[in-house]
Amino acid sequence: MKRYIIMLAMAAALAGCDYLDKMPDDQKTDEMVWTNRTEVLKYLTNCYSALRQACRSEQDPWIGIVDDIEISSANLRPYGMARGDWSPTSLGYPDRWSLNYKAIRATFVFEQNIDRCKELSEDLKTRYVGESIFLRGYYYFDLLRLYGPVVLLRSLPSNSADFANMPRTPFDECISYVVECMDRAEAMLPTFWPADSEECGHATKVACRAVKAQALLLAASEQWNGNPDYADFRNHDGTPLASSTYDPNKWKLAADAARDVIDLAEENPDHIGLYTADNVSLESSDYNPFKSFYDLFNVGWNKEVLFGSIFNVGGHCGRSTWMQYCTPVNKNGFSQLIIGVTLNLADAFYMEDGTEYVPDEAKELTLATENGPHFNPNNYDLENDPTGANRTALLKDYKNRVAWGHSAGDGYMFANREARFYATINYNHRIQLVYSTDKAVRDNFNSPGQQDGFGRVEMYYGGISNTGETDSYSRTGMCPQKFIVPNESINDFSPTGRYVTMYVRYGEILLDYIEALNEVNPSDPEIRKYWDLLRKRAGLPSIYTTISGLEGNKELQRKYIIRERQVELAIEGDRYFTLCRRKLASSVLKDATIWGLNVRGGDPATNSFAYTDFYKRTGLNDGNPADRRIWKDCYSLFPIMQTELDKSPGLVQNPKW
Predict the structure, then answer these.
(1) How confident is the model over 255-267, as a mean pLDDT?
(2) Dist CA 453 CA 436 (whole Å)
(3) Which of 410, 500, 535, 605 could link 540 by a cystine bridge, Cβ 3.0 to 4.6 Å?
(4) Rounded Cα gap, residues 418 and 296, in angstroms
């Protein structure tokens, strides 16, 4: 049987039961489960089922409460959270505390019983136990990022245990246990699974090293490394839950752990490393940075995925739902465009030559007069095209990610940007990658007079994707392109194949490494080496050639490393955690303006692509102070739900909640 880790119907059972049921089928006896090889594997698969799915607006609520995404629908959790509507008594997001503990308990049950199965070889038992230990460590790490110190269970408590009065364990001790789990599991697991293996999604040595590196980076960062704000964060008996002493050696531990992942990648370059489209070398003249970065998230399992899950696309929280929320509306489409990309994020991307984008409000009210260098790489004659064959051929190049970039008529701010920009952000007047190349279908994107068969999206007020008659539009005038599959029809939102939810990818580990190394020794040449590697994949020159005074300057390098994370990992969920762990969230988000475009400007009856005031920078709460974003210091940790505190008086709540 195929063993892809898929979010099964069992996940629905998780949300409604007190524990992960130890029997995959409650009609089976305990003996039937633990003596049968197939049932044991089902149970292990169920241990994976608490992992998050791929719908970032639902199961990753933190993407909508920082400065890169604006969610316009009050029906989605992050909308209210961004406006301060969350508390320990209102469940505005998935309760990971409860769910993860159910999964942690299940791993203990699994390890306690697996020896009863005589149908498994000793090697397979060892591997399965390694997977279970890995999952327990990962679930604890997931809790630590969200909630801080946890109640650390090192074994399955007896039925007589005093659950109600179990206190939280100091943060550093929790991190040490995650590291212990990863070290133990690594010795039991294969190094990796090939991309075509039926085992993809199961834990590996490289996944263990990656999670260990991320846990140690969290521990080294300012939030948990001598943070004075947590000086009074204590259990009821006075036990401090966070260290008040800064330890610079924690950065070295984090750097060394990330380096261990890199070592494993460099020993196995065909199976672990940065993804490039069609396996084309970064040094090749045929290398395509846009296709490489775009396809990374759409081709299924690939060598950049260090730990992830493969999900069917058809579920409520699958890739299909994300596409529905992000794809611009057309006349006949089923799209529900409610997720926008902010100018706060768009401005962070670089120009194609690697220099910074400098906002210029006068120039931003103009349009590009020429096509970009990648717009028509095969030089199709679009002026003399009586049958439309050349237009169709160019559209196929777009759908195959051979053509990309801006075209004449795009807004000034969208011209000549780096490849990751075009792979991440969709914008007004852009040719869409979804839908067929048929002119009649494409023209459904456009108003009369603008129907040229290319299907350029109309995001301005009165345009097809912003009629003013529905709530299905982007409040920022831009929307995500990342994770959008360039299929033939978006109406059913069912692209074929399986798509990966990435929990850790190799590009992230390279960023972790240079970030930690900068705090240890800002002059270490490996910072430039691996930073350059990431930017080369993006088609950019070394940042050291475009930012003066950068090399060896710890503070300046830190600033631009954080910015590189914002760009490289945009909309992947990292932004919230990075701002919080580096204690930057308050300075970046408190009283900050979230910027978009002028999506309610002009006359909707007469606006067109020529309406350049659409590109006027506009604060999302302009004219409506009640709609402003709110950031409080307590938001750097999620609150433990009051229902959990009521059941367990031994718990203390997170600071300032």
Answers:
(1) 98
(2) 11
(3) 535
(4) 16
Instruction: Let me know whether 229 and 131 are in one domain.
Output: no
Task: Please check whether residue 634 lies inside any domain of the structure.
Answer: no
Q: Is the pLDDT of residue 78 over 90?
A: no
Domain presence at residue 543: yes
Confidence of residue 17 (pLDDT cuts 50, 70, 90): very low
Tell me the sheet residues that pair with 310: 500
What gap in Å lies between CA 267 and CA 192, rounded to an integer? Answer: 12
pLDDT at 269: 97
CA angle 516, 294, 271 (to 5 degrees): 60
From CA 66, how far away is CA 93, in angstroms rounded?
A: 15
262/325 same-domain check: no
Confidence band for 412, pLDDT divided at 50, 70 and 90: very high
Output the DSSP codes for 387-439: TSHHHHHHHHHHHTTSS-S--TTSBGGGSSB-HHHHHHEEETTPBPSSS-S-H
Could you tell me if 482 and 228 are in contact, meaning their C-beta atoms sit under 8 angstroms apart?
A: no
Q: Report the CATH number at residue 286.
A: 1.25.40.900
Paired with 309 in beta bridges are 501
Angstrom distance (rounded) from CA 521 to CA 544: 17
- Residue that is written with structure tokens 């768009």 in the block: 346
For the chain, report the end-to-end CA distance as a whole number of angstroms: 47
Distance CA(603)–CA(583), nearest Å, equals 43
Separation CA 598–CA 475 (nearest Å): 9
User: Residue 71: beta bridge partners?
Assistant: 339
Lowest-confidence pick of 164-173, 224-233, 312-321, 574-583: 312-321
Per residue in 501-553, pLDDT tens?
Answer: 999 999 999 999 999 999 999 999 999 999 999 999 999 999 999 999 999 99
What's the CA gap between 15 and 449, in Å, rounded? 51
Q: C-alpha 158: how far from its chain's center?
A: 38
Given a contact cutoff of 8 angstroms between Cβ atoms, the answer to whether 644 and 657 are in contact is no
Contact status, residue 280 vs residue 286, Cβ threshold 8 Å: yes
Of the pLDDT bands very low, low, confident and very high (cuts 50, 70, 90), residue 15 is very low
What residues form DSSP beta bridges with 305?
A: 505
* The pLDDT of residue 621 is above 80: no
Query: What is the reported pLDDT for 435?
Result: 84
Find the largest Cα–Cα distance for the chain: 82
* CB contact at 8 A, 235 and 150: no
Host domain of residue 574: 200-312+501-583
Give the angle 305-308-313 at the CA atoms, nearest 5°: 110
∠ CA 599-451-380, rounded to 5°: 115
The pTM (predicted TM-score) of the whole model is 0.94
